[in-house]
Amino acid sequence: MKVTVENKKGLNKDLKIFIDKETMNSYMDEKYEEIKGSINLKGFRPGKVPKEILKRQFGKAVFGEVLDKVLKETSTKALEENKIKPAGQPKLDLKTYGEDKDLEYVLSVTELPKVDIKSLENIKFDEYSVKIDESETDKRIKEIAKNQPNFKEVSADTKARKGDLVSLDYKATVDGKEFKGSEGKNTQLTLGKDLFLKGFDDQLIGVKKDDEKIVEATLPENFPEKDLVNKKAKFNCKILSVKQSEDVKIDDGFAKNLGAKDLKDLKTLISKQINDEYKNSLDQLAKNQILEKIEKIKLEEVPENLVEEEVKVLSQGMSEEEAKKNKKNFEEKAKTRIKTGLILNEFGEKNQIKVSEQEIQAEVQKQLRMMPGQEKMVMDFYQKNPSALASLRGTVYEEKILNLIKEKGNANKREISKDEAEKILKDAHKHQHDQDHSHVEEKKETKKKSPTTSAKEKKSTTKKAKAKPAVKKTKKVSKK
After folding, report:
1. Within a 10 A sphere around the Cβ of 221, how many other Cβ atoms?
2. Which DSSP letter does residue 208 get?
């Protein structure tokens, strides 16, 4: 194989690849030997069919398979030997080919640019730790205690009021007749919440233990017995007990009920919980700072084919006229995103960062916990959409890269109060909101200038250019 690199124009290169006919014929002979044992032709024993006969009957098919194999092997080898990482799929142009002929073709490739990642080794960013005041911890514990149900039975002559827990047995009838589900035992209602039937609770205000009370209520639209929907039912209620809520005593027993060893241990756990809540958000700010600095790193050239693909993504849902008007702006955004992705990807490869299947599954499980009751829907989504799983892998890959950059970086560590943390996060949120608003206004202005808006455009919105790059697009390099 002879390889000549021609037409070097920035990242674009043409590789002229030549394989002599002797080599091609040896590939053909290997293929004939491979298929000879599986071919059955009348008049010949298995494995004894002459090559000339095979050539006449199967020559074109064999050459097609051999050509495909040689093109894959030689193009991959040519790229590897010349240390070229293609950005996207190379284009192949056959010049000379055929049975008993030399093979000559041109591989046109856009190369990924050389990326210098030295500046990422000591990148500067702010790293905050939040000092949680004891009063904040006490306040959170009081809120938890307030939401813990703590009802105590009152004396027999105490009347039930709003907020009390009433236990009762009931028998119900409609037009004097019992119906399926018309009887209930030890039913508990917190008066005022109206969770049983509309207007039911209010009629129990004022009852005492051992009272009997007839309550009337309309059966709802979703009542199982459809012929009784919207009919008025009479409930003969026997009051078993009346309980009133009282403040929970915050002590070691309360702490143990929440899974802590004692009250001191609970305060430590709650303090850490509050700290973690702020830490996660502040850590994301640090990563955003890193991404902003990566965006400022200079890259001599960005592959045009990748820019074109990204512009298509950014202009998705737009009319041809809108996309044309926004083309320059989108190209700048696309270059920034691709550049950031290339830099992060290079850092990931140099540091041999991998994403395991266990990590992907852990991320899926994390999403399942965030969507209780919809676990099956989430699992089905990932099982039926391999691209969504690939996107998730890209997100995990990027997260691991950013975490390693943080570890190797130069952190400006600061301990701040909860109030300072809230101000920093509020300012960051406002900054993001202003950027989003600017993007929306820009799109509105484009639509004002546009004479027509299609139905499709009304239903869809342009994908926003994010600081987070699509690492997955640059992670794997085709070597075909």
Report:
1. 8
2. -
